Amino acid sequence: MVSYEEGLKTVKKGFLILCVVTTVEVLFALLGNGHIIPGLMFPKVVMAPVMIAFSLYKAYYIVYNFMHMAHEVKGLAMSVLMPMLLLVWGVIAFMQEGKFWGSRRTQIEQFNAKSVKPTPSKATGMIDDIKQLPTKNG
Amino acid sequence: MAHATVDHDVHHDHEEKSAYWEGGREAFKASYGKLMMWYFLLSDAFTFAGFLIAYGTLRFSMPTWPVPDFVFQAFPTFGIIPESMAHHMPLVFVSLMTLILIISSVTMVRAVQEGHQNNKRGVVFWMLLTVLGGAAFLGCQAWEWTTLIKGENVSVTRNPFGRHEVNGTYTVDAHGEPYAAGAKAETFKSGQGYLLHGKMDHVTHAPVLDENGDPTFIQRTYVTDKGAKGQLSFGPKAFGALFFFITGFHGFHVFSGVAFLLIIMLNVASGLYERRNNHYEMVEKIGLYWHFVDLVWVFVFLVFYLL
User: Inter-chain contact B109–A99, Cβ cutoff 8 Å?
Assistant: First the structure.
């Protein structure tokens, strides 16, 4: 159990850390999207991992210091945190799937853009519509 | 330790531990309530993860997606800030919302600490601040939603926000009419965000509605730098539904949190937990939930506003 004074210190430190990390995140997002220095842009492959890393750090900080996971026994921590590993698979698998849907979507659009002339159906001996009758050369 | 005599009284002494499978032994040295709160939060984390993964999957499947720092750049004027400035503050308002949530998380930690000290007044004071923080967050979210729904006509089935895929020049002005004499044609760059503004009546300044009562939009025409003609179109439809469902689900968590915080705060004030003499464990449990709400916001903030 942490002492009361130590606890107060953790609160102040935690508040500062969360505020600073969030500020850095937002400034980095604005910088990378060209809002701070006109013309300067960072590619998505640089931006995304940095943002994700900052957020994961914030999540770790909240769980371990504000929710006191650091003071729980190891079994509890593991029984809560280990199932989260499934999400790593989930994120990777579904992002792949999403990309696949995207490529399918463009393929379908390409197919739809092609104008296909309807092929005349084989004669059945029935005249459904007089306009379907060949008028010339037929 | 005697196996034969097991005290079935619910208020059993913590010192007198009975054998496994006979009750009275705490798993993981945590009380039943706290442990179950952890597992509830685990299951809730999976629910949110499911939503956020669905968001990611749909976003990856779209050739284009609205630009967050273009969509979320409004700030309330409070009647003081000039209107023009209040429209170009990318991510400032959502950062304010994040700050509010961080502060309320910190006040919650303080309430739990005062509970460990058995300081009833302290617990009530810090819980009250936490409730105010939660309410302030909900107020901000209400403003954000109102801006999107009323001002920018976003709904679960309609998304007027898009992203330019090419460089080009608009051939008409922002009202969809020919440029005034001497006016310079507006240009845009690939990657920039755009919004299809709702048509407004020139005289009454009321939105122009179609026969179904839906807003009508100005779809500006343009010429790309390569000379191709085009017209602004609606952005990916899924954006609105995902935004409202996910931030709404989070907002609902905040709302329930505020309700439970209020109830527990009143119970603290009435002396209920003081009589239980367990260092205000109930405050600790609602604290876990409240930090979780902050934790989820970290990821909602990441995927909707930062990435």
Answer: no
Q: Which amino acid is at A1?
A: M
Q: Give the separation between CA A25 and CA A35, rounded to whole angstroms.
A: 14
Return left, alpha or beta for B244; rule: phi > 0 is left, psi -120 to 50 is alpha, else beta.
alpha
For residue B141, give how far its alpha carbon lies from the nearest alpha carbon of chain A (Å): 18
Q: How far apart are CA A51 and CA A63, in angstroms?
A: 18
Specify the amino acid at residue A119.
T
Alpha carbons B201 and B262: distance in angstroms, whole number: 46
d(CA B153, CA A92): 33
Nearest-angstrom CA–CA distance, B69 and B72: 5
Helices (H), chain B: 32-61, 68-71, 83-86, 92-116, 120-146, 238-270, 272-276, 281-301
Phi, psi of B90 (to 5 degrees): -60, 130
In 10 A of CB B101, how many CB atoms? Answer: 27
What is the distance between the alpha carbons of residues B120 and B111, in angstroms, rounded to a whole number?
9
Cα A108–chain centre separation: 23
How far is residue B175's CA from residue B218's CA, in Å, rounded to a whole number? 7
**B-chain residues near A51 (CB < 8 A):** 302, 306-307
As a whole number of angstroms, the distance between CA B256 and CA B243 comes to 20
Q: pLDDT by residue (tens digit) across B184-229?
A: 889 999 889 999 999 888 888 888 898 888 899 999 999 999 999 9
pTM of the model: 0.87
- Side chain identity at residue B274, one-letter code: E
Going by C-alpha positions, the residue among B32, B72, B25 that lies closest to residue B301 is: B72
Q: How far away is chain A from the Cα of B229, in angstroms, using its nearest Cα?
A: 17
Number of neighbours of residue B233 by Cβ within 10 angstroms: 12
Q: Which of A5, A24, A42, A62 best tests the B interface by mutation, with the highest count of B CBs <10 A?
A: A62
Secondary structure of A14-42 as H, E, C letters: HHHHHHHHHHHHHHHHHHHCCCCCCCCCC
pLDDT digits (tens, 9 = 90+) for A44-90: 899 999 999 999 999 999 999 999 998 899 999 999 999 999 999 99
Q: How far is B37 from chain A (nearest CA, A)?
A: 11
The pLDDT mean for chain B works out to 89
**Amino acid occupying residue B129:** L
